[in-house]
Amino acid sequence: MPKIRKVLVANRGEIAIRVMRTCKELGIATVAVYSEADRAALHVRTADQAIFVGPPPSRESYLVQQRILDAAKAAGADAIHPGYGFLSENASFVRACEAAGITFIGPPASAMDAMGEKTRARANMIKAGVPVVPGTTEPIATEAEAREYAQKIGFPIMLKAAGGGGGKGMRRVEGLGDFESAWRSAKSEALNAFGNDAVYIEKYLEKPHHVEIQVFADTHGNVIHLNERECSAQRRHQKVVEETPSPILTPELRSKMGEVAVKAAKAVNYVGAGTVEFLVDVHRNFYFLEMNTRLQVEHPVTEWVTGLDLVALQIKVAEGEKLPLLQAPEPQGHSIEVRVYAEDPSRNFMPSPGKITYLRVPGGPNVRDDSGVFPGYTVPNVYDPMISKLSVWAPTRREAIARAQRALSEYVVKGITTNIRYLRAILAHPEFVEGDYDTGFLGREHTTLQ
Ligand code: ADP
């Protein structure tokens, strides 16, 4: 496969900039795309070239495959990096890129198909001998059938959208009493968010940890893992703080989960960067949750402790190169990432778009701020309100927490409300400091963290 010379980044915000930074270091030209709402956005200024793709709603711009492909052709880009979200897990887009002779920097469409729908992924994983969260491998047709199955595996259960993502279309059900309303709301939320109301059932695991394994595969059949990320600090099933190593993993469990993640990737002939997500229960049994077939938001913590540039690796793999390492590197030190949002924790985390009148970004040793904003920038109200990911590295977890706190204390954003104080409260909370926090932690401590 030929060297990539020009990459169109089919995304916006911090991730578009993060991808472009690596491209520049590799001597690869960059092309941004932007909607009407993003004319003045930082990713547009960062790229060598920028192409307009439509009105503010992403359905009319960033998600329109033909517009993105036309932009790539017009710019003479030989590859497209999708970032995360938008078209990053869209198999039909991968096929369209292939048909247009443009390299998609990501896995093949067939691997996305195999892991796309949660029910299909679960069936594939069972076939491959990967432990999955107990539940169904097919969407459930009627509420009556769902009730029957729920009684069979025992409450509590989780109703989940087969086409789900972003924590949407998920309902915990305690018993038959609240079944009907949960069934109805899970289905309608799924239909709204994903255009697909298929719902299935998983056993609800009590107090689990979300631990995910970064995997990487090349086109020569090599598949490795790059250790785990602990992502149990979640609000409404969405990650807020991530760290690596996981404070609850022993070296044995790490290598066992790593092996299973590699097995999962091999089973679907995976290529590129991917993440196999697991739930770990109180007995430290682990179960496949889903695979994200793209670069994750939280990839910087893995970069900190491995010294690797995951975007550079993605590009090398897309160029047909072999992976430069054939086994998991020992994690060096500790890394923590916090997601900085333009939102108001005291008003139920309502997004707070608007103009940033003053901005001071933290610095100092081993601090990284992946941001998509600048002073004077107006955070639009049409996209995800995450404005930055602050990540730090230190030799130990204790020092990493102290460094993250120090960095957050330097972070000043005026003109809009952010969750910075909330993030500091999480890092200071005894349960977080102790290191054994499950996915219910932020929900339980909601009021003390305000
Ligand atoms: P999404 O694709 O929407 O992110 P996931 O399947 O990855 O959904 O789950 C997101 C989070 O929801 C998990 O990290 C976990 O906190 C919670 N969750 C999902 N399924 C279960 C389950 N069966 N039991 C307990 N918690 C769950």
Q: Descriptors for this entry?
A:
alpha+beta; single chain; 33% helix; five-stranded parallel β-sheet; 450 residues; eight-stranded antiparallel β-sheet; 22 strands
| Adjacency order of strands in the biggest sheet | 13-12-9-10-11-14-21-19
Quaternary status of these chains?
Answer: single chain
What structural class do you assign from the helix and strand content? Answer: alpha+beta
Please report which band the strand proportion falls in: under 5%, 5-15%, 15-25%, 25-35%, 35-45% or over 45%.
25-35%
Number of strands: 22
Bound molecules: adenosine-5'-diphosphate
Percent of residues in helices = 25-40%
Mean pLDDT: 97
Task: Report the uncertain regions.
Answer: none
Give the radius of gyration. 21 Å
Let me know the largest β-sheet: 8 strands, antiparallel
How many H/I helical runs? 15
What does this structure look like?
The protein is of the alpha+beta class and about 450 residues long. Helices cover about 35% and strands about 25% of the residues. Helix 4 runs antiparallel to helix 5 and helix 5 (about 110-115) packs across helix 6 (about 120-130). It is globular, with a radius of gyration of 21 Å. Adenosine-5'-diphosphate binds near residues 133 and 237.
Question: Would you summarize the structure shown here?
Answer:
The protein is of the alpha+beta class and 450 residues long.
Task: Record the SSE blueprint.
Layout: E1 6-9, H1 13-25, E2 29-35, H2 42-46, E3 49-54, H3 65-75, E4 79-81, H4 91-99, E5 103-104, H5 109-116, H6 118-128, H7 143-153, E6 157-161, E7 170-173, H8 179-194, E8 199-203, E9 209-217, E10 223-235, E11 238-244, H9 251-267, E12 272-280, E13 286-292, H10 299-306, H11 310-318, E14 334-341, E15 343-344, E16 350-351, E17 354-355, E18 358-360, E19 367-371, E20 378-379, E21 386-394, H12 397-410, E22 412-414, H13 420-428, H14 430-434, H15 441-444
Helix pairs in contact: 4-5, 5-6, 12-13
The protein binds adenosine-5'-diphosphate.
Adenosine-5'-diphosphate (ADP) is lined by residues 133, 158, 164-168, 202, 204-205, 208, 210, 234, 237, 277, 289-290, 439.
